[in-house]
Specification:
The chain has 229 residues and is α/β, with parallel strands linked by helices. The strands form 2 sheets. A 7-stranded mixed β-sheet has the order 3-2-1-4-5-10-9. A 3-stranded antiparallel β-sheet has the order 6-7-8, with no helix packed on it. Helix 1 runs parallel beside helix 4 and helix 3 runs parallel beside helix 4. It is globular, with a radius of gyration of 17 Å.
Amino acid sequence: MSVASDYIQHWDDKFSTRAWGRYPPEDLVRFMGRQFAGRDRTAVSVLEVGCGPGANLWFLHREGYKVSGIDGSPAAIRIAEERLATENKGLNKHAPDLRVGNFATLPWADSQFDVVLDIFAIYANTLPVIDQVVSEVYRVLKPGGLFYSKLWGRNCTGYGQGREIEPGTYDDIPAGPCQDMGVSHFFDRAEIDRVFSRFSVRTVDVLTRTESVKNLVTEEYLCQFERRS
């Protein structure tokens, strides 16, 4: 499944003009620390789909992991490459492998990664594309490998607003965390179980935040899946 050139430009413009966070989310740091405590991190291979300008991979590369990343935006990959090359110089024996490309056709071999990360990336697609991305993630994970995914829930401000593309998927959302972010899919737990059914579910946690000043609610699903052996 191809990505429309205007959609790539949409993200290129955002990554080129918007100030993005420099550091990874606390839940990702906790997840990686717990899973690989005492392990030789240089032997752990991590792929991030939708890596953006590289905040998560910057941290993981500094921690010694062997990191790879893919994003549809050439601007995002350029920013990520420049940051890792300058700020992480000499800190990791593995050079980062960052590529411009389509999540739905990952350019890596089968059973290559110990961990795949999705930090609010695959949600920005229609369900047919999301299903294909999940299939690709399963393919490139090693048996027993872990998939950590953060998804927007349907209690988010903005769900049900804008232009409906399909059930749960909207564009031109006027408010909430997906405002002006383009195509966005919102999940509920039953749909998570269906979309990720090829995996074993380890945990699915729900995190809800309320910003009273902005009258904003966000609902995040923090998901840990394991590829069946």
